[in-house]
């Protein structure tokens, strides 16, 4: 990272040096030489003075006036200062011309055989120099503005990345510890009834924990791993289900694998089991996944039962979904569609999620 930073600084310095060298060569050397007249040394001193003033004003504007005044929304003051600075530079050049009698020197260079007669000063060249000054100030302001925009955009992207990371870490914490504890208790109960089934359940639980620990450290995982994680979760939840729950799962066995942000689907699946199960009434849960043209379509439907808000699972029931909606906004922006319907005559909670994984 330090090598890359040093490289960028060296490249920026080289760009400034080459830019000024080209500007000075064209405006202050080649342009006067193109006239084919040998000019006095005082003229080249003036060119050097003018060039030095422009460089000085470029950087004092870049490092001080722009960040301290312009970027503080003091625009009238910024314009006034640069107008005064431009006029000051021109007056300094005029004073130099009067001091060395530049008009007479240039007359002798261009018309050596003609006697010199003083004339009123031609301010055309002074206005041209003032325009060059404002052009340099404009370039300085543009460069600083672009760099500020790039820095602000980089900061925004970094903050967005940190926000996504923090929300992902929060979501990982929302994989309810109570789920793991309850699952372990259920597996323990299974050991007295069905050893092979308990072994299979332990394997699924270990796969889930491995996914949470390692895959969520990455910005993306494979869709196949995400679906396997969901399937393991559903299989473990089945251990807790009674015969009153009708569970219907529709997930394709073959599909085109694609990258996806980890743990996007689980909150919707988990929500089905949190609110769609009753120990006293018949209930149903439907979980369907389709993958067509790299578009993931998740459909869930479940009965709605009031969850005891004092229970750990009930208390956090809405947090995971809210967090997932935020992650969808941050990660997929306009590439996803989410519809949630809980106000219907069938008393079911319906979710339709479409994500463009391309």
From TrEMBL:
Q: Which UniProt keywords apply?
A: Kinase, Membrane, Transferase, Transmembrane, Transmembrane helix
Q: Where are the transmembrane segments?
A: 12-31, 43-65, 77-96, 127-146
One GO MF term? protein histidine kinase activity
Q: What is its EC number?
A: 2.7.13.3
Q: Which InterPro entries match?
A: Bact_2-comp_sensor_kinase, HATPase_C_sf, Sig_transdc_His_kin_internal
According to its UniProt record, this protein's enzyme class is transferase
Give start and end of each Signal transduction histidine kinase internal region domain: 167-244
What SUPFAM superfamilies does the record tag this protein with?
A: ATPase domain of HSP90 chaperone/DNA topoisomerase II/histidine kinase
Has UniProt tagged this entry with the keyword GTP-binding? no
What is the protein name for this chain? Sensor histidine kinase
């Amino acid at each position: 990272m330090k090598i890359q930073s040093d490289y960028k600084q060296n490249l920026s310095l080289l760009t400034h040096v080459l830019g000024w060298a080209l500007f000075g060569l064209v405006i202050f050397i080649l342009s006067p030489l193109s006239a084919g007249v040998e000019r006095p040394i005082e003229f080249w001193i003036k060119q050097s003075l003018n060039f030095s003033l422009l460089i000085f004003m470029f950087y004092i504007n870049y490092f001080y006036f722009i960040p301290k005044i312009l970027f503080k929304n003091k625009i009238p003051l910024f314009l006034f200062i640069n107008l005064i600075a431009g006029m000051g530079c021109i007056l300094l050049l005029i004073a130099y011309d009067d001091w060395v009698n530049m008009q007479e020197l240039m007359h002798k260079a261009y018309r050596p055989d003609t006697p010199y007669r003083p004339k009123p000063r031609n301010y055309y060249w002074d206005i041209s120099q003032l325009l060059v000054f404002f052009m340099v100030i404009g370039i300085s302001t543009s460069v600083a503005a672009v760099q500020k925009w790039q820095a602000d955009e980089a900061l925004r992207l970094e903050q967005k990345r940190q926000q996504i990371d923090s929300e992902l870490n929060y979501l990982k914490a929302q994989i309810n510890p109570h789920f793991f504890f309850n699952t372990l208790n259920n597996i323990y109960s299974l050991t007295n009834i069905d050893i092979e089934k308990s072994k299979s359940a332990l394997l699924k639980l270990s796969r889930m924990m491995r996914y949470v620990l390692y895959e969520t450290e990455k910005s993306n995982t494979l869709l196949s791993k995400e679906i396997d994680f969901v399937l393991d979760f559903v299989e473990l939840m089945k251990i807790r289900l009674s015969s009153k729950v009708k569970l219907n799962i529709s997930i394709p066995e073959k599909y085109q694998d694609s990258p996806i942000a980890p743990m996007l689907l689980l909150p919707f699946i988990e929500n089905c089991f949190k609110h769609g199960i009753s120990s006293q009434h018949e209930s149903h849960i439907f979980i369907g996944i389709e993958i067509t043209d790299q578009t993931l379509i998740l459909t869930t439907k479940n009965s709605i039962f009031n969850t005891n808000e004092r229970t750990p699972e009930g208390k956090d029931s809405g947090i995971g979904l809210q967090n997932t909606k935020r992650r969808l906004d941050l990660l997929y922006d306009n590439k996803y569609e989410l519809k949630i319907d809980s106000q219907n005559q069938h008393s079911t909670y319906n979710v339709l999620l479409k994500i463009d994984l391309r």
